Fold each of these.
Amino acid sequence: MARIFAYIVHKVGVADDSATELVAAAKKIDPAASPTAIVTGCGADLDAVCSTLRSSYSEVWKIAHETLAYPNAELIRKALVKVLPQGSILLVAHEHFGIDLAPGLSIKLNSTFVSDVLVIEGVDGVTLRVVRQEFGGQVSTHVRCDISSGAVITVRPGAFKPLESAPASGSVVDKSSEIGVLVARRRYLETVVAEAGDVDITKHSVLVSIGRGIQEKDNVAIAQELADALGAAVSCSRPVVDAKWLEKSRQVGTSGKTVKPKVYLACGISGAFQHLAGIKGNPFIVAINKNPKAPIFQVADVGIVDDLLEFLPEFTNKVREMRTVSAK
Amino acid sequence: MVEGIQSPAQATYWLISGRTLFLVIHLLGLACFAYIIARRLTPLLRGESDFRFDRPWLRLGRVFKFWLGQWRHPRYKTAGIMHILIFAGFVLLATRAFSLVLGISDSLVMPGAIGHLYDIVKDYAATIVFLCMVIAAARRLVFKPARYAVPARYGKPHTADAIFLLALIALLMVADSVFAASKAAFQTRLGQPVEFLAVLSLPWMWKSVFLSVPLSTLQQLHLGGFLAHDLTFFFLLCYRPFGIQFHVETSLFTVFFAKLDRGTLKPVRWGVPDEHLDQVKSFGVKTFEDFTWKHMLDFYSCADCGRCSDNCPANAVGRPLSPRFLTIKARDYAFQHYPMFGNSGNGKALIGSVYSEDEIWSCTTCGACEEECPLLVEYIDKIVDLRRGMVDEGNVPQSLQKPLKALESRGNPYGKMEKKKADWAKAKEFQQTCDVKILDGKNGADTLYFVDSITSYDDRMQAIGRATAKILDHVGANFGILGATEKDSGHEVRRFGEETLFMALRDHNVEAIKESGVQRIVTADPHAYNALKHDYQDVPPVEHISQVIASEVKTGKIRFNPVDNNNVYTYHDPCYLGRHNQIYDDPRDVLDAIPGLKRVEMTRSRDRSFCCGGGGLMLFYEPKEDQRIGVKRVQMAAESGANVIVTACPFCMVNIEDAIKVAGLEGKMTAIDLTELVDQQIAREIPKECETAVLGG
Amino acid sequence: MEILVCARRVPDTSENEIELNSAGNDIERDDLVYSINEWDNYAVEEALQIVARVGGNVTVVTVGGEDDEEILRREMAMGANHGVLISDDAFRGSDGRGLATILAVFVRKGPYDLILTGVQAEDGGAQVGGMLAALLDYPFASLVNSVEVLDGKLKVSREIAGGNKEINEIDLPCVLSIQTGINEPRYVGMRGIRQVASIPIPTPSASDLGIDPATVGQAAAKVKRVDYFVPALGKGAEMLQGSREENIDKLLELVAAKGGLK
C-alpha cells in the first residue's frame, strides 16, 4: 500500500479541524496506515501547528519558507511535487484551498484525482471505493478509482469523525531544504474581510436559518418573528444571500460564517454540504422542509415535512403563548 | 359731431394701420404655429408605424363621447366639471375668436336671433371660463390636490407653468370682454344703439365700470383690448406646444386614434406577421424613436392631470413607477431632443437614462391608468414594448430569469414536471366525486377546462381547480382537461415582454386545443381567459367560469343553499376579468343569488378596482416598494366592513391571502374564490336512487 | 483579449426532481431538462463583460455530443462570438482528467489569453479547471468572484471562508474557475437562440485535434461512477409524523429541552 499523506491547512498557528478528520480518512483507506502530515508556512505559527499535529500524526513534515507565509496553492503544489514520493496518496480538505491545490497537483504527480469524498469504503487491490454526492446532494454515487499511480483525494469537511485513540508524540521532519526556489505566477495581495453585519450569527446559541424555501423576501419577516419569540437570530443559506434577501453576514456555510449554536432550526434549507460545513459543534438540528427527500433530513436530529410559511407562524404563536404562560 | 367708436381695423396703431398690423400679427402667428407643429411632428414621422385607421365610424363615435362629450371627466367631480365648463367655453368662444382674429370684424356676423343668442352665450362662456381660471389657480396655489404634486425624483413642481397658462387664458377672457364692454359703454354714452350684454357677464360688469370713463379712454381700451386679445391668442397658440396645454390641439387626434380593443396587446411590429418576426432586427422600444407615432402623440397629449398615477397601484405603494411621469419624462425627452432649431434625435437608450429598469418592471398591467385617462392615453402597450426591448437586450432581473427559463423548458414558471400537471385532479376524495377526463386522444369532450399553471401546481390553488371541475360536473358539462399537454397560457410571459416564448407557448396550446376537438373553453383564471380570448387566434370561444355559473343560475341548473353565517362579503374585481374584459356583473349576480349572503362594495370596485399586486411572473419579481399592493387592497376591504373577500382569480387569491397575513388580519378576514364559494353553497340534487328509495319507502 | 469558456450541459436541478430510476443504478433520465451548468453560465457572462471593457472575443467550448450543441447556441445568443463542440465517440466516458486533456489540446491550438471554467458542475467535482491549468502549465485560481484586467495580468478575488475575499494578482495566460454570484448573467430567450441558429459550429474530432484516443474516454478513465443511489432517508432525523399541532407541541418541547428557549 502506498504511503498516505495529509496536507494540513492552518491559520494563525491553529490547525484546521480537518487535521484529525484526515487521519480517520486515511485509516479507512488502509487501517494499518500511519499517515504523515504535511504543513507549510513559516515562523512560530508553523512550529505551533507542527507541535499540535504531533499528537495525531506519527510523522509531521514541515516545509518552512518565507514565500509560504500565505498558503499559495501554486507554490505549495511545486513544493509538494518535490517532496512527495512517487505513488503517494495525498489527502486534503475539500474547501477553498484544497479546491485550488488538488486538481493541478494530481496532474503534476501524474496520479488520480478523487474529489469531494464523503465515504471511503475501502481498497480492492489498486481500486479505491468511495462515495460522492451529485446534484447538490440529492443523489449519491459509488465511485471506483484506480490508484495504482497514487492519488490526490479531497475529503469533505465533517464527513469523517476524528478517531478516539491517537498516537502520542510524533516526530517533526524538516523538509524545507528539499523544495528549492519557488516562483509563482499568481501572487497573493491581501484579504478583504467581509463587512460585519448588524447581527453576529456566530454569537447566538439559537439560530432560525432560512433557505430557498422561504420563497420571497417578504417572508423573511416570518422567520424573524420566530427568532424574536425564541430570542434567536436569523441566519440563512447561500441562495438567500444571492437573492439579496439577507446580508452576506447572515450566511452559514463554506463561503459564509461558521456557527456553533445549541439549536439550529433549518427552515426550507435543502442541506447542501457547503451549507452544512458551516455548522459546527454538533448542535440540535431541526429540519422543516416541504420536500421529504431533502438531504437536510439526513443530518437533522428532528425532521418535519410541512409548509414553512404556514408552520412557522403557528410555531411562533405557540412559543409566544408559552412565554406569556411562563411569565405569569 | 356724433361719431361711432373706431374699430381696430380702422384704427391706426403707432402710425401703422390696424388692418396691416393685425394682418402681419396673424400671418406671423400662423407661420410660427405651423413651423412649431411641423417640428413637433418630426419624431412622429420617425416613429414606428401604428395601425389606427380601422373602424373610422366607431372612432368618430368615441370622439363624440370622450372628446366632445368629455365622458370621463366627471370621474373626478370638481376638476371634471370645471374642465367640462372650460372645454365648452373654448368650443363656444372658438367661433368668436376665429371671427375676431381672421375677419378682424368687431362683431360676429350671425343672422338675426341666432346671432343675438350666441352673443349672450359667449358672454357667459367667457365669464365662466374666467371664473374657472380663478378657481383652478386657487386649487393649484391653495388647495393643492395631492395628485398634482411632483415627487422630487421627477423634477420641479409644475405649478408655475400651470399658473402662467391659466393667467394667459384669463387675460384672453378679460381682453375680449374689455373690447366688447368699452364699445358698449362708448355707445351708451353717446346714446347710440347698444349691443346687448348678458347680465352679470364679464363684459356687462366691465361696461358698468366703464360708463364713467372718458370717451377717449374707452376708444383706447377698445383698441387695446383687441390688441391684447390678438397678441395673447397667438402667443398661446405658439406657446401651448411647449407644455401641458398642447392637448388643446392634439387631444382630438389622440382620442380618434385611441386603442379600441381592451385586453389586447399591440403586436411587436404593426404589419409584420408572426412568422416574419425573426427577420425583425430589434424588438420593442429601446430608443425614443422605437415608440409608435401614436404613442408619441400620447406623450404630447397628456394634460398632466395626474389621474393615472392617482389610481396606479404601483405608485400607491411607492414602487418607482408613475404612469404620469412615464409620459411626462418621454415628452421632456422629445422636447429636448427634437428642438425647434438644429439637429434632432440622438437614438440614446431610454432604459438607464430616461427610465429605470425597476420602473418598467413595476407595472402590474392592471389598466387602472388607462381606465381613468380622460384622453385615452395608453400605458400597457408602451410598458410591454419597453419590456420587449429589455428582454431583447437580455436585461431581465435574475428573479424573472428562472421562471422564464422554466417556462421555456417545462411550460410552467415553477419548473415542475409536465407529467404532474393533472395531479390536482387525482386527489383521492375528489376523484371519487368527480372524475376529470384528460383529453389525450382517447377521451373526447365538448368543453375544455383550461387550468393553467398556477391552478395546476400550487397546492392552495388546486382547490380552485377542483371546485371549478365540480361545478362543471354539476351543470352536466361534458368537459375535460389537457393535462400534461397543456402549457402555461403565456399571458404574463407576453406582458413581461417575452413575445417569442409566448408565441411558442401559444402555438403549442392552440394545436393541443384544436386536436382535442372541443367546441368551447372554460377557465377559472382571468389571465388565461384574457390570453385565450385576445392573444390566441383560431380557438373555440372561451368563457370565464363566473359567466358559466351566472348563466346556469339563470337557467336554474345551479341553485344555492342559504348561507348560515353572519359574514359580510365583498367582491374584488380581478383586473383581467373586470377592466380588461368588462365582466363586472356576472360574479356579483352569482353572489346575490346565494340566499342570505350579505354583500358590500368596496369604494374602489368595478372599473376602479384596485389591483391585488399582479399575477403570473409578477409573483416572482421583487419590486422596490414601501408596502405590498395586496395589503392596501385588504385594508380597503376591511374599511368596507367586509370580512370575506371573494375573488375570481388564483393570482388574486395568492396576493390577498398573503396580504391578510402581512396586514395582521388573520382570523378577522378570509379570502375565498367564487368557485369555492359556489361549490360550498351549491344545492346538489338528491341522487336518483335515493329519490326512488324515499318514494318507495 | 481572447477568452475561452469551457462549459458543460447538465440536468438543471431547479427544473428537475433528481430521482433514481426503477433499476436503482442511475438517475431517472426520462423527462429530464438539461441546461448549461449554472457556474459556466456565470463564466460566460464574466467573459462577455471583460470583453466589453477591454475588447476581444469570447469562444465557448464543450466536449460532448449533438445534444450538447444547444448550450453553445444559448451562450452564443448571450453574446459569445464562437461556439465549438469537441465531439468524438472516443471521448465518451472521459473522467475529469480526460476532459482536461482534450481541452488542453484545444487551448494549445488557439489564441486564448484567458480560460474560464465554472467552479464545479452539478455532477462534477471542481476539477477540470485546475487540471487544465496544470496540463497547460498556466497559473490557476479557483472560486473567483471578481476579475479586473491589468497590463498582462489580472487582479482576481477568490471566495474564501467566512465570506472573506482573497485578492491575487495572476499572470496571463491563466485559467480561472468562476463562482456563482460574480455577476448577473443576462437573459437569453428563444428569439436570441433562433437568431444564432444558422451559425455553423465547428465540431473537431479526436483526429482533427490530434488526440490519442487511448489517453481519453472510458478506457483511460481512472475514476469511474458505478451507480447512483439515495442514502436512507432520515437516517439521523426523527421525523415527526403527527398533525401540525402535535408537531408544534413536540418540537417546542424538544427545542426547550435543548436550550432553545432563552
Amino acid sequence: MKRASILLVTALALAAGTAAFTQSFSVQLGNPRGPAQPVKFPHDIHAGKLGMDCLYCHYGAEKSAIANLPPVSTCMGCHKIAVTDRPEVQKLAGYYERGEPIPWVEVYRLPDHVKFNHKRHVRAGLTCQTCHGPVQAMNVVVQYPSLKMGWCVSCHRERMNDPGFPASTDCLICHH
Amino acid sequence: MSEFTFKRRDFLKLVGIGVAGTTTGCASRPAEKLIPYLVAPNDLLPGVPYWYASTCRECSAGCGILVKTREGRAIKVEGNPAHPVNRGGLCGLGHAALQGLYHPDRLKSPMLKVNGQWKAIGWDEAIRTAADRLATAKSGKRGVAVVTGNATGSFEKLAREWAAAAGGTHLVYEAFGHEAVREANRRTFGQAVVPTFDFARAQMVVSFGADFLETFGSPVAQARGFAAMRAQPQAGWFVTVEPRLSPTGARADEWVAVRPGGELALALGMAHVIAKEGLGRGAAGVDLSAWMPEAVEERTDVPAKTIERLARAFASRRPSLAIAGGVAAQSAQAVALAAAVNLLNHMAGNLGETVRLDQALNFDAVAPFRDVQGLIEKMKQGEVDVLVVHGADPAYSIPAWAGFGAALDQVLFKISLSSVMDDTAERCDLVLPETHALESLGDAEPMRGVWSLVQPTMQRVPMFDARPAGDTLIALAKAAGFGAFPDTWDAYLRNEWKARHARFGAGRTFEAFWEDALKQGGVWEEAPAGKPGAAWSGTHAFASPELQGVGEVAVVLFPSHLHDGRGANKPWLQELPDRTTTAVWGSWVEIHPDTAAKIGVAQGDPVRVETAAGSVVAPAYLYQGIRRDTVAIPLGQGHAAYGRYAQGRGVNALALLPPAQDEASGALAYLSARARLSKAAGESALPLAQPNMHQADRGIAQGIAVASLIAMEYTGGKAGRVLEPARGEGERAGSAHPAPLPPGATPEEAAHTPAGLGKEGPRGVNEPVLLETPPSQRRPGLYTEPRQLKPGEVIPPHAITAYEPEEKVRSPRQIPVHEGSYSNPNHHHRWAMAIDINSCNGCQACVVACYAENNIPVVGPEMTKRGRQMAWLRIERYEELLGGGPNDVRFVPMMCQQCTDAPCEIVCPVYATYHNPEGLNAQVYNRCVGTRYCSNNCPYKVRQFNWFDYAAPEKETFAFPEPLNWQLNPDVTVRSKGVMEKCTFCVQRILDGKGNARDENRPLRDGEIQTACAQSCPTEAIVFGDLLDPESKVSKLSHDQRRYWVFNELNTKPGITYLKKLERESELA
C-alpha cells in the first residue's frame, strides 16, 4: 500500500514537473509588451515620420545572416547635430562620449537550435514588415510574430512553389 | 530489516521535487543584452566570415593557410590552394593551431619566478628585470645565448642580430633538424640542403626509414606528390625498408623488414648489384666490393635475392627515388645511410629528376645537435649568464644524457618567450609570453624561392597579455641599451621586405606590394623549369651502426602526430587516434605478439623497457608490423609541464637513449639502444579507438589488382580521364586473382623472407607468416558484382544487389526519394562523395578539420575506451597483409554514408532523422529524444551519442574551457546531452555555397562547395559534389571502374562511393 502511494506521489510529481516544463516552451517565447530600453528609441519617428530606410541602420540585413544593431557612431552621425536638446538624445551622446556601447535589451527571441538568415529573406524580396510588423508605427518595438515553428512554416509552405524564390520546408534549412 | 517504509520526510521530498519542477519550468529566461559596436570596424559585418591568408607556423614546412574569422575570431584554418608549398591541403597539426591560439593554459601575463614560485608581473617590470640582467651580462665576461626554433625569415635574422648585439651567440634548435641529410648532401653533392622530391614522376620509391608522410621534410607537399604517383596503375611501386612498419610504410606495396640499423647495408647492397650488373651509372669511385648481397644478407636478414630484385627494379624503373633521413632510422651512422641513398639516386640518375636539390627546404640555419651540446657545455662551465629561448622546448626534446636540464641550473637568468608554460619555460626565471602566430605579423621562408607572410587574423585574445616575440626582443635591446633596431617588429619586418619589393613589386609602391603580398599569403618565384642535376663531388666512409647496451630488442623511437611533442597540449591531437595503433591520450610500446608472449604480456599490459640509460613503463600494443627483435615507442608525450592536456601524460621515451650521436653530422642518434623487456606491475590500460584491424569478410576496404584493371582497360583515376564504366566486365575478368607476391618475386623467394617475423628457422628468422589472404582479394568483386543464381538459391529480400545488375538497383539512388511532402521541383542536387582509398594515407587531417568545423567535443581516454569518441569522421585501418614482404594496409575514411535508404531513418520514433530532398540524411538535434535506435540500426556505426553534457561549463565533462569555446563555429549547433549527432556533409557549408550562387544569380559550380574533410585532404582523396550534375567530378569518380560501396549488400544505397585500392602485386615481374 505504502509502495503504491509512493509510486502515485512520484508519478504525480513527475507529471506536474513535465507539464510545467513543456508549458515553459510555449508561454515564454516573445514578450508582448516590449521591454524598456536604456535609450527610448522611437522607431515610429525614425522609420515612420522621417521615413528612414530600415537598412540605413540595420545594414547587415541584406548582406549577412545577422541584421546588425547599428553601432553608436551611426546614431551620432545625425545626432551630433540633430535635436541635441532632447534628454534621450543626450543619454545617447553620453554613452558615446563615455565610449560605452548601449546595452539594448533583446526584443526578438529566436528559440534555441534554430538558424535564421536575414540575408536570404531580404533578398527573396520580403519586406522587413512581413516578419517584424509595422515597426514604423511602433513607439516601443514588440516581438510581433510568435516566432514559433508553425509561424515560420506556414509562410514557407505558401511560398514553396514560388517561381523566383521557392521556400524550402526541409528541416535542415533551419536546424543544423 | 529491509522492509520498505515511506516516511513523512520522503513524501515531502517528493512533493518538493514536483514543486521545484513546476517553478523552474515557469521561470523565464532572463532578457539578453544586445551589445552593438561603438564604432563599427571597417568592412566587418557580424555574421559574415572573413578569410585571411597566412602561413602555418606549427612546423618547419611552412604551409600556406587561409584563416576563417567570424565576428573577429579565428574559427577555422584551411590550406591555401594558391600556396606553392601545400596547394590547399593541411595536416592535423596545422588545423590544431587554433587550439594553441585559444589554449586555456596560455599565460595571461609575464611571469617571474620568485623563490621558486611563479608570480604574475606587468610588462614594464618584466622588461626592466630582463634588461638589467642583459646589460650586466653584456658588460661582464659571461655571455648571452639565444636559442630559437626554425623560424626562418625575418625573425631568424632579428634573433641573430639581436644575439650579436647583446654580445652573445644565436643557435637555431630543431629537434628534427635533418642534419644527416644536409651533411650527406654536402659531402656527396656539395650542397648542404634538404631536397624536395618529385614523387609524381617516380616510377618506384624506396624509403629507407624516411617517414615522408609524417614528419620528414614537407609532409603535406610530399603526401600530395605521393598520391599523384600512386594514382598511376602502371607506376608508383613503393617499397619501405624499416624494422617497424610506420604509417608511411603502411602505404607500401612491399615491406622489407630490415634489421634495425641495417638500412645502410641494404642500400649499399643494392648499389653493389647495380654497379656489378652495369644497370646504371658507375659507383662514382665508391668501393662497393664488400657489400655483396650475400654479405648484406648476413647484416640485414634480407635475402640476397630480394636485394638483387630490388636493385634491378630500382635501376630499371626510371626515374626512381630513394629517400632516407627519418627520425626513427637516425642512428650513429645517419650520414652514411643518407650518403648511401644518395649514391643509389646518383647511380639511377635520379638527381634533377625526382630529387631536387635546387628547390630545397629551408633547414639552412638549423644547428646540428653537436652545436647544442657545445652550448650545453658552455652553460655548464658557467659561461652563459642569460639564456633566451623562443619557439623550442629543449628541456623536453633533448634526451637526459646531454645534460641540458643540469646545465640550465648553471645559467644565472633564463628567459622564455613561450606563450605557454612548456617544460623549458617551467625551468626558466622569466617568461615573456609571445602572441600566437594567428594573431601576429611575421614571415617565413619555408623553401627556396618562397617568401610566405604571417599576418594577424584577429585582435589579440584579450585575456592573454602577450606581445610578439620580435617586439619583446627589440624592447629588451632598447632597455638594455644595445643594438640599433627599428622601434617595432612591424617596422623591422617591412624593412626586410623592401628587398622583396625590389624584386617582386615592379611598378607598385611598397604599400601596394605589401597589401598584395598579404592578400596572397606571400610572394614566390615560379618553379624553375630546368632540371639541374648534381654532380657526385665526394664520397663517404661507410660503416654499419652498432646499437648500445644489452638486451633482446632494439628500441625504435618514432615521431607521432604530436611531432616532437609540440602538439601534445592540443586536445584535438591527443584525442586523434594514432595511425598505427589507434591509441589516444598516451604512450605505448609496439611489440611483436611473439615477443610479448615470451614475457607474458597481453594487449594493453604495462611493459618495462629498460636500456643502459633508463627505463620507461607503458602499455603494450601487440603489432604484427614490427620485427620480433624490435620494440617501438612514440615520441611526443611525457611532458613535465605544458598545460593540462600534456602534463604527465604518457612517457618521454627519450629517457631510453644512451649517449650516442652521428659523428659525421653531429646529429642525435635516436636509433641507438638495445633494451630488456619485462612485464611491469599495474593494470592493463590502453585506450584504442579501433581495437580490431581485420575486415572479417566485410569488404569495407577493397582492393583491385592492377592486372584486373588493365584487363578492363582502366582509364579512370586521378591522373586520367574518366570514361563510362565497363559495367563490371573487367572485374569479373580479374577474378583469377593471383596470390600476392613482391615485385618480380618468385614463390620460392617469397617463402624465404627472413624478416625476423616468420616462424623461427635455422637462423632464427625464416619462413614468412603471411596473414590469411583477405577474402576481398580472394574473391574480388564479391561485394559489388551481381552474380548468377545458383540452382535452387533463393534471393534474400535484403540483398538484391548481389544478384541484380547494379544499374537496375542503383539508378534510383540518384533521384531524391521521398516524393510527396518533398515534391518541390526546386531541389536540384544529390550531395555525394567519392573517396579514393588508393589515395588515403590515413593522415587524419580530415578528422581534425571535422572537429574544428563541426564543434565536436573531445571526450578523453576513458570514454574512448568505452567507444564513446564523438568524431563524426574516423579513419579505419585494415591490415590485410602484414608481416614482411608484400604489404597491404588500407585506410578508409568512414563517416555517415548519407544512405538513400537509410536504416537509421525508419527506426526514429520522433522523426529526428529523416531524408532530405537533396539526399542528405539529416539529424535534427532539437527533435532528438535520445532513444539511440538509429545508432543501433546503423550498419556503419557512424552516429555518436552525447552521453554527457560536453557543452555545459559547470560539468566535469566540459570540452571547451574558456577560451577554447571561442573557436566554436557559430553556424553549427553545439549539441547537448542525450542527443544523437553525426556527419551532416557540412550542411552549413552547402547552405552557404547555395546562398552565394543565388546572390550571384548563377548555378552552383562544381567544387565550389567543399566539406571540411574534402577541403583539408592533402591528397584529394575525398571529393564532394552533386551527383545529379553529370559533369561534376564526383559523378565521374562515382562511375570509375574502381568504385564500390561499403555494405552494398545491405541495399542502403550510400551517397559515398569508395574507389578501390590498387594492388600492385605483379607489377615488376
